[in-house]
Amino acid sequence: MAKKKNIENRPNIFLPLIIFAGIIGLVAAGSYFAFREQTETIQGQADVTEYRVSSKVPSRVMELRVKAGDIVHAGDVLAVMEAPEVEAKQAQAEAAVEAAQAVENKADNGAREEQIRGAKELWEKSKVGVDIAQKSFQRMDNLFNEGVVTEQKRDEVKAKLDAAIADERAAKSQYDMAVNGARQEDKAAAHAQVKRARGAVQEVQSYKRETILRATQDGEVTDVFPSVGELVGTGAPIMNVALMNDIWVTFNVREDHLSKFSINKIVEATVPALGEKAYKFKVFYMKDLGSYAAWKATKTTGQYDMKTFEVKAKPIEKIEGLRPGMSVLLK
């Protein structure tokens, strides 16, 4: 009976051993998971090339033909703008063409028939005057030679003859000018004025065409900024169009992981929004983000800091469903 009692009072040494072994196991497991090399995930984001649709002239939005999310093709009308000032300038430019054309026609056609006839009659009249003055001088010269009249009288008649000859020459010049029309320099100036006026019309017409905004490339409308009836200034964006065929992924890669990337290198990454399938991407751009980017010290003592690089890669093949803003994971 006494022996049984001693056995019951003996301390159980197995329980502490089990607890100690359990603690050792937990510490070992924790150390394993804490210090083993872990796979890091680099997260990127899909991006796409966009172009802005804008107007060259201040105008009012009269009609929007598309909305955000619509697929458009090159040449499609996106919006119709209203610019009354352009219409007014076109009327002014066309009137300037008409005026310049009239000047050109006048220079090309020369004087009117009535002006030519009048100039010829003046010339004929001046020729008659020269003939009469010539005869008068001849008679006066004969009388002077006979000693009937003085030399002064003869000189007066001679002066009248010279004046009549000068008048005849002037009348002939006026007649020739009327027949020949404007000078070549005047004609060239008139032609240049017409070209200038027509150029102004073409300029206004180009501005008028800009009131019809069309898509320059195929894409998807991502943003529409003004509403119908709003005024927009010169160059103000009306909408953005994304070129969905030109999509890429941007990764921000820490410097110690940069050895896994190089230009034209193929990397594999997954798109969580599209499932677990891995897709291949080709690196085409690498550049450091500069001193303003996030830096991370490699050691707490801080021997050196690692910069962050921007790495861009394009899909090798088109990925159905990939859209701008989706996350892309690279391990």
Task: Describe the overall structure.
With 331 residues, the protein is an alpha+beta fold. The chain folds into three domains: 37-47 and 243-330, Elongation Factor Tu (Ef-tu), domain 3; 50-81 and 212-241, OB fold (Dihydrolipoamide Acetyltransferase, E2P) (Beta Barrel); 92-204. The chain is 44% helix and 27% strand. It is built from six helices and 14 strands. It has helices at 2-9, 14-35, 84-109, 113-145, 151-180, 184-209; strands spanning 42-54, 59-64, 71-72, 77-82, 212-214, 219-224, 231-232, 237-254, 266-270, 278-288, 296-297, 305-306, 308-315, 327-330. The strands form three sheets. Strands 1, 3, 6, 8, 9, 10, 13 and 14 form an eight-stranded antiparallel beta sheet that branches. A four-stranded antiparallel beta sheet has the order 5-4-2-7, with no helix packed on it. The chain is rod-shaped, with a radius of gyration of 50 Å.
Which key terms come to mind for this protein?
331 residues; alpha+beta; Elongation Factor Tu (Ef-tu), domain 3; OB fold (Dihydrolipoamide Acetyltransferase, E2P); 3 domains; transmembrane; transmembrane helix; Biotin/lipoyl-binding protein; membrane; HH_YbhG-like
List the SSEs and their pairings.
Layout: H1 2-9, H2 14-35, E1 42-54, E2 59-64, E3 71-72, E4 77-82, H3 84-109, H4 113-145, H5 151-180, H6 184-209, E5 212-214, E6 219-224, E7 231-232, E8 237-254, E9 266-270, E10 278-288, E11 296-297, E12 305-306, E13 308-315, E14 327-330
Antiparallel strand pairs: 1-8, 1-14, 2-4, 2-7, 3-6, 4-5, 6-8, 8-13, 9-10, 10-13, 11-12
Helix pairs in contact: 3-6, 4-5
